[in-house]
Specification:
The protein has about 625 residues and is of the alpha+beta class. The chain is built from nine helices and 37 strands. A hairpin with a 3-residue loop joins strand 5 and strand 6. The chain is globular.
Length: about 625
């Protein structure tokens, strides 16, 4: 009922070799402690032992690795422990699927014969390990859950303690493995690698470092639910929604039907003076230009608007130095012009979120920087998509050590209050999780979760917060989530993409789809929003596209207002009448009606059918146009 992975400390620096073990190799003893079944596993051959506590509650079975019980008295140390690896397991004779929370959510059908197994850390890879080369671009796991539908019965699990050190694994039966399975592993320690070159710099070897991840944690706990007959991923999402509302403080927000515009304020660009190169702020959308564009949108018929203003303060999209105070940019018009914009927004009932990036900075502040496992400041860079290596032509940046988040955030909040700003986007905080491996004071991923939630909770009575692609632990503090994940990583082992993230949160927290004019598949992106009842999001700037060519921000190419204004108004008029009916309603059912045709049902009786095919489809008495949607039910 458990699996372990361990290593020899005598080889830890020079080798990444590990050994696996299973509970049948251990001496096992059992105690009943007032209903809690404490099982002690003693691997005598390697001098490692620890306890797992099992508790049967009314709705679920809880299993918890007790970190305080871990004893390592020989030359071996624990690396990983997998809880109940075969609990969610099925043979080739069973029917069903595995649910994985990758991105929006993915299903792996039983017996699909894929030879590729899935394995990913909850909340994404550890970015503080400084990756020189990226082999792929993936979507993170934002919710610490997984599940299985087996012969019509739903099985569901929630990692409710130690989620920051968890990874989720799954596979479908293939010629090499007789089983379909999904489980979770606690990374007691993580291994980090550094290339070491020889004297002639021709050959290289690697050094390895293993760092304990259990700091600030009592244990690693998972709840296992039996959801009953006919329960699928919709019921799993409903169970997780109940968990968030009953135990994590998630409250229903006022959900609205709005067209969202992310406005890009300023960037930094290269300039020359007497032969010296430096960077200066450059306006892409001044405050008065934002006001003019929003006026045009309203006159064109897009009445209900909301903005997210990014790069509006300090140095623009990326801080020059660590942010502790927030101030309007002169190049965008200064405080007077910002006040005028805010008056306009209030008069026209346009809600606004001003984005503040507390994590990214370019210069100085060595003590603030995140350190790698080898105690070096980590420089972060963009990667070339063609060859997946760092783009040396773009500026690199640093990330703020999590230990400063709460203090710096409190300071920033004071300056926001002075500017009479009441709604703030904290996108960088909600979708990023990492450690700081500084030898003087290691800060774990769990510590960062604690710092982020403490900062949001402490200032929640002063400001309203929105996030982006938000991890589950931040959701209870947010009124809106921008760019809620609409896709998966697209691994070959996946059979279907599902909107699990949206099923959990729709009607509870305002959600937008991913930005329309950064997406390469705009019609599909639009239909994804319709399928999930999400608000539309466009990203734009007043400047012409040509003005960002050969800058560090060329990924914003094609976002000039004039390139998408007509499309935004057209989509608004097409979708808004439906969105107004469903925006506050919880999703009660989601299914694939036929190939690439999906139906979403809401608690108020409305059903929405979306057709992703290039031809019209008839379902029941309803005809849905090619790449279109149709509404049924309550009027």
């Amino acid at each position: 009922d458990i699996a372990v992975e361990y290593y020899d400390v005598r080889d830890a620096l020079l080798s990444n070799a590990t050994t696996k073990g299973y509970s049948d190799e251990a001496q096992v003893s059992v105690k009943n402690e007032n209903g809690i079944i404490r099982v002690s596993y003693d691997f005598a051959d390697i001098a490692i032992s620890f306890d797992v506590c099992y508790l049967l509650e009314k709705e679920y079975l809880s299993a918890k690795i007790d970190f305080k019980s871990i004893k390592e008295s020989g030359d071996f140390e624990l690396l990983k422990v997998t809880l109940l690896p075969a609990l969610f397991c099925a043979t080739g004779d069973d029917n069903g699927y595995v649910f994985i929370p990758d991105g929006s959510g993915a299903l792996i059908n039983f017996n699909n014969n894929s030879t590729v197994a899935y394995n990913a850390p909850v909340y994404g890879e550890e970015i503080a390990k400084d990756i020189d080369k990226k082999t792929s671009y993936t979507r993170n796991i934002a919710m610490p859950v997984f599940g299985m539908q087996k012969n019509g019965n739903g099985l569901f699990a929630i990692i409710d303690e130690g989620d920051a050190i968890a990874e989720i694994s799954a596979a479908s039966k293939n010629d090499e493995s007789y089983y379909n399975y999904v489980n979770t592993t606690a990374n007691i320690r993580c291994t980090y690698e550094k290339s070491m070159f020889t004297a002639n710099d021709v050959t290289s070897s690697a050094a390895y470092k293993k760092i304990n991840q259990t700091k600030s944690l009592d244990g690693f706990s998972v709840r296992y639910y039996l959801l009953g007959n006919s329960a699928g991923y919709t019921e799993m999402a409903q169970k997780y929604r109940d968990y968030l509302t009953d135990e994590k403080g998630l409250e229903k927000q006022e959900c609205k039907a709005e067209l969202n515009v992310e406005i890009i304020g300023a960037i930094d660009v290269k300039a020359n003076f007497l032969g010296f190169t430096y960077y200066k702020p450059y306006a892409l959308t001044r405050y008065d230009e934002a006001e003019s564009f929003l006026s045009e949108l309203k006159k064109s018929g897009a009445e209900k608007l909301s903005i997210k203003y990014s790069g509006w303060s300090n140095n623009g999209l990326t801080n020059n130095r660590v942010m502790t105070k927030v101030s309007p940019m002169k190049v965008l018009g200064g405080k007077k012009s910002l006040n005028k914009l805010n008056s306009f927004l209030t008069e026209n009932n346009i809600s606004a979120e001003y984005d503040v990036d507390l994590l990214k900075f370019y210069k100085g502040g060595k003590r603030y920087r995140v350190s790698s496992p080898f105690n070096e400041s980590v420089e972060f860079s963009r990667y070339l998509r063609s060859v997946y290596v760092k783009d040396i032509n773009k500026k690199s940046w640093y990330l703020l050590s999590p230990k400063f988040i709460s203090k710096n955030f409190a300071s920033a909040v004071k300056s926001l209050e002075n500017l009479k700003i009441s709604s703030v986007s904290v996108s960088s905080l909600t979708g990023s999780l990492y450690s700081d491996f500084n030898d003087k004071a290691v800060v774990s991923r769990t510590d960062m979760i604690n710092e982020v939630t403490k900062a949001l909770e402490k200032s929640g009575d002063k400001l309203k917060f929105s996030g982006e692609n938000a991890n589950a632990y931040t959701v209870p503090y947010l009124t809106k989530i921008y760019s809620a994940p609409s896709y998966t990583s697209g691994y070959t082992v996946f059979d279907k993409e599902i909107p699990f993230y949206q099923i959990v949160l729709h009607g509870i927290v305002n959600l937008t789809g991913e930005s329309q004019f950064i997406s390469n598949y705009r019609q599909i992106n639009f239909l994804k929003a319709v399928e999930t009842g999400s608000q539309l999001l466009y990203t734009g700037m007043a400047a012409e596209t040509s003005e960002i060519v050969d800058t560090d921000y060329d990924y914003l190419y094609g976002t000039s207002f004039n390139l998408w204004q007509d499309d935004a108004v057209s989509k608004y008029k097409q979708y808004m009448p439906l969105l107004e009916k469903i925006c506050s309603s919880v999703i009660v059912s989601h299914r694939e009606v036929s190939g690439n045709v999906y139906e979403t049902k809401y608690e108020n009786g409305i059903s929405v059918i979306v057709n992703y095919n290039p031809y019209e489809v008839k379902t029941g008495n309803t005809v849905v146009q090619a790449y279109g949607f149709s509404e049924e039910g309550a009027q």
